[in-house]
Write a structure and sequence with these properties.
single chain, 6 helices, mainly alpha
Length: 182
């Protein structure tokens, strides 16, 4: 049995993760459609529909995580979406296509991250984290101190995620620069 604070931190974290992912895709739908096309996995005629479908699913997952709706369905859907993303990345990496944008976030000032096996691993680890929320929990109410810990844990997680994503972008930029200067 695990402490109920751990699944709550994960649930709010996943809710915010999906909310941010949906927001980025809705806000830059044309750019996202281009990323989908670059993956070369979908028929061209389906790109407009999928560019709406994926952020809609992500927004629904955000709501489900934040409102604690249907935990087994929410975790299963999260695993399917993250698994699909990991598979799409792995297929393109296997094709030697690491230069395309991952579609993880669209920020003109920080640049888009290229595909890497690290992203595949990240998505698989996120699936495991989501599954953790289904473990049996001890029965205790969350206190005000627990909610403070929840907020602090989410802030630390966001900072760590930002740092890791920037390191991955830097690695990709360095590789591109090195190739250009060989």
């Amino acid at each position: 049995m695990i402490d109920p604070l751990i699944p709550r931190i994960l649930a709010v974290g996943f809710g915010l993760l999906w909310l941010g992912a949906a927001w980025h895709k809705f806000a830059a739908r044309e750019l996202f459609r281009g990323v989908l096309a670059d993956y070369r996995l979908l028929p061209a005629g389906s790109l407009v529909f999928v560019s709406w479908l994926l952020p809609t699913v992500e927004a629904a997952l955000a709501a489900a995580w934040l409102l604690a709706l249907w935990p087994v369905v929410t975790v299963s859907a999260t695993a399917m979406v993250l698994g699909a993303y990991a598979t799409a990345i792995a297929i393109n990496l296997s094709r030697g296509r690491r230069h395309i944008a991952c579609g993880c976030g669209f920020s003109p000032d920080t640049g888009e991250q290229s595909l890497s096996w690290t992203l595949v691993l990240r998505n698989l680890l996120l699936v495991l984290a989501a599954a953790t929320t289904l473990l049996p929990q001890t029965l205790r109410p969350l206190s005000i101190a627990d909610h403070v810990v929840l907020v602090l844990a989410l802030l630390v997680a966001m900072l760590l995620n930002t740092a890791v994503m920037q390191l991955l972008r830097n690695r990709g930029a360095f590789r591109a620069w090195s190739k250009a200067h060989e």
